[in-house]
Each structure stands twice: as C-alpha cells, then as structure tokens.
C-alpha cells in the first residue's frame, strides 16, 4: 500500500512572525527569556533525540521501561482500537509500544517540528500497514481544534510522554490539561509521563551531560534566531547553564552571556551584561500525589500510577470524567 494514502497532514503551524514576536518580547523583558517550544526546529529535534541517548539523561530509557512493562495494563484501561493522539510526538520512539499494545486504527501525532514529525510518520506508515495517520503540525501549548476522527463507539487515548508537562509552570500545566480534556469524551484516557522529585545531583547531571549535547541543544535556539530572523548572536559568547532550583521544584536552563555585548534582532538592539542570562526552559518535577491533585483539578480521575524501582519517573493513566 502507498504510505502516502494513509498519511494526511493538517498544517496548523503558527506563522514565522509568531517566532519573531516571541523573541522580541522575551529579550525585551527585565529578565530575558525565550519560549522553549522554539527549540524544536529540525536540528533541535535531532539534538533532543541525541540527548535522550546520553547516559545521564534517565527519563527516556526509564519511561520506555515503564511503558514496556505496563503496556498490557494500559491497553486494558484504554481499550484496544480507537485513536491514539500524541502531543509533542517528535520521533515517536515510545509510540510503538502503544501501537503494538492497543492496535489503534488512527494515530494522530501533534508536533511543531513539521519535517521531523513527517519523517517519523512515513516510517510508522511503512511499519504499520493498517494504521491511518493524521499528522497535525501545531503549537499544542495553545488551544487548538483537532481534526475530526470517526469514533465508531471506540475510545480515544491521549499520550503526552517525556515529562514535557514539566515545561509548564503549575498553573500553565493545569490550563494545558484542561485543554486536553476538551479533546476527549467521558471515559477517554490520558497517559502522561511525569519526572519525579529526587536527589538534585541526579537532576543536575541529566541536564549537563558530559558530551555537551544539551548545551548544543540550548545554543541551537540562538542558531535558529540567526538563521530565520537575521539575528547576530555570537554563539561563542553564550554558555549553557542548567541547575535544579529546589525552592521552585524545577530545573532551569539558561544561556549565559560571557561578556558585555549587544545583539540585533528584527531591527532592535538588546544589550547584555557579563553574566546576564536568557532563561530558555523550566522543567518542573512532581511528587506523584502533587501531580494527581493537579490532574483532578483539570477534570481527570487518576486510575493508575507506574514508577520504576528507584522512583525516578512516573507514568500516570488518567480518565476523563
């Protein structure tokens, strides 16, 4: 079968001026920042895949182990068949575990990185001949209307792996979960990965790998600004900085200016003092009870929580009330 016949792209990507507007707004603030969603151009998505393979970055391999062990239980809770909707699908590495266990008729990946997502979809279409793919290029951090999928009495499972929920501040996470709930009917499920609070040394190592992959991922955001917006960031004048802020319960990632300098973007000039940073990402960590409380506020009923033996990571199955 022609894989193109089974793959449809719904392009809801924000326009280029959305990127420029976000950069100008973020750099114009007293504490400079850039939204982490713009990490994921094609190069950034490839670098993130490489991060997942570093020895220090435990979330990916730990979540894969949990999903592999729990796949049968997940299928029993979610029901087999139906539609699988994944937010921030990336390369869809973990998705195969659910495709094998649930055998859905439709897979709907949602990602802002169009080419990276489509590449993964073409591979999935070849490997799962009976699967229909409805790829959605969109910013899932904003409310969006998903393409209609004929249910035929079957349930929909939303999938948000990788602890990406941690990129939202708690109130933003609540808003996002409420938006996901709007895409689901009563008794549909949400399967979500959550990074758990733990020894700060483990967290700090995970975001400061010895090979420097995370540092390259962080700086690629400036490379993208230079390439797409005509900015003049000197990449050698910014260093990667990541640390666990225990009081806030989050990892913070920054790009730190190594000298006094000025940068031009979109016709505007932004000055940096030596040691001044651009805050590029937060990754909030939760205790299981903390996240179950948040999910309940968003209209979900937590049914099952799986963790690894070291309690590094959690996967939760939530049912839409």
Low-confidence stretches: none
Q: Give the CA-CA distance, first to last residue.
A: 39 Å
User: Biggest sheet: strands side by side, in what order?
Assistant: 1-4-3-2-5-6-13-12
CATH superfamily of the domain at 3-11 and 54-199 and 286-320, please? Vaccinia Virus protein VP39
Number of strands: 13
CATH topology of the domain at 3-11 and 54-199 and 286-320: Rossmann fold
Return the structural class.
alpha/beta
- Sum up the overall morphology in one term: globular
User: Do you know the CATH architecture of the domain at 3-11 and 54-199 and 286-320?
Assistant: 3-Layer(aba) Sandwich
In percent, how much strand structure appears in the residues? 25-35%
- What portion of residues is helical? 25-40%
Question: Can you identify the CATH class of the domain at 3-11 and 54-199 and 286-320?
Answer: Alpha Beta
Question: Taking Cα atoms only, what radius of gyration do you get, to the nearest Å?
Answer: 20 Å
What is the secondary structure topology, with strand pairs?
Elements lengths: L2 H4 E5 L4 H12 L14 H10 L6 H21 L4 E5 L7 H8 L3 E6 L2 H14 L4 E6 L18 E5 L9 H13 L6 E7 L4 H7 L6 H17 L8 E8 L4 E8 L3 E5 L2 E5 L4 E8 L3 H10 L2 E8 L5 E8 L1
Parallel strand pairs: 1-4, 2-3, 2-5, 3-4, 5-6
Antiparallel strand pairs: 6-13, 7-8, 8-11, 9-10, 12-13
């Amino acid at each position: 079968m022609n894989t193109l016949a089974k793959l449809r792209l719904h392009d809801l990507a924000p326009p280029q001026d959305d990127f420029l507007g976000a950069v100008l707004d973020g750099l114009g603030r007293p504490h400079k920042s850039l939204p982490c969603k713009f990490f994921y151009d094609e190069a950034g998505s490839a670098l993130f895949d490489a991060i997942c393979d570093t020895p220090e970055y435990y979330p990916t391999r730990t979540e894969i182990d949990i999903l592999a062990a729990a796949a049968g239980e997940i299928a029993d809770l979610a029901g087999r068949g139906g539609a699988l909707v994944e937010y921030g699908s990336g390369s869809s590495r973990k998705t195969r575990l659910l495709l094998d266990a649930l055998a859905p008729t439709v897979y709907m990946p949602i990602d802002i990185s169009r080419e990276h997502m489509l590449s993964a979809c073409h591979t999935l279409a070849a490997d799962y001949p009976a699967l229909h793919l409805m790829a959605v290029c969109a910013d899932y951090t904003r409310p969006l209307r998903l393409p209609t999928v004929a249910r035929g009495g079957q349930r929909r499972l939303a999938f948000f792996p990788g602890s990406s929920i941690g990129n939202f501040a708690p109130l933003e996470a609540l808003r996002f979960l409420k938006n996901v709930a709007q895409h689901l009917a009563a008794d549909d499920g949400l399967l979500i990965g959550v990074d758990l609070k733990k020894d700060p040394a483990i967290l700090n190592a995970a975001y400061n790998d010895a090979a420097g992959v995370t540092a390259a991922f962080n700086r690629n955001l400036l490379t993208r600004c230079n390439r797409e917006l005509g900015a003049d960031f000197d990449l050698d004048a910014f260093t990667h900085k990541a640390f666990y802020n225990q009081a806030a319960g989050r990892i913070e990632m920054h790009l730190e200016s190594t000298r006094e300098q000025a940068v031009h973007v979109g016709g505007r000039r932004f000055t940096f003092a030596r040691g001044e940073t651009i805050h590029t990402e937060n990754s909030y960590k939760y205790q299981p009870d903390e996240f179950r409380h948040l999910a309940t506020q968003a209209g979900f009923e937590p049914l099952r929580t799986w963790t690894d033996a070291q309690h590094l990571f959690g996967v939760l199955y939530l049912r839409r009330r």
